[in-house]
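User: New here, please read:
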Amino acid sequence: MPAAATSTADSPQVVDPTAELNRQVDAFVAMGYPALAGVEEAAFRALFEPLAQPLADAVAAGLDLAVTDCRVPFVAVVSDAVISPELRVPLLRAGRGKKEGILDRNYGESGLASYRVVDGLDVPDAPVYLLLDVERGDEFKNVKPMNATPVIAERGRTVLTIAEGLSFNAAFPGKLIKNHCFMLAGSHEGNRRVPAIWISAGSPKLGWCFQGVEHTWLGIASAAGRAI
């Protein structure tokens, strides 16, 4: 098997796409995703096998395979149909920290049940899919979400949903660090709240912020597109 990634002192880490997809699935398995999904490990791994072709197509189309401090080539997304987001929140991690993830108390008794995908995002109706060219969105720190999201759309990019943000963190916990956290503007409950993942007292947290308020430590995550 080829190495998962290569790099030099003067260049970003470059991943082998097949090895990287396998690494992400291994990470999900290590976190206990099969049990949460209510399936055997082999059945869980089989969900990702169809992603090999769209990944190869994306690479052939010029997908940049470099990993930087705030950008990754792709994320294998586990949908809410496979595992509910509430079950995944405790598995959030910040870097190499061991503290469990928490759901902000301000979500109230309804939790995440009322959140849905923003219209027009064209999220695949599939148990798993690929999110391509994913950025943490550091450039949008200290920018109001209501002002940043049109800029992201004008660039032909898409904001991330809660399920996509949870998958991003599961595959790349090292991308969630102090003062470099991110909003998930692709999910909403029909009001001014924008979900976000940040660090609170050392614990990763799924919370929310208002779309008209900027934060110096929260960017807005985005991707070039989705593939299945």
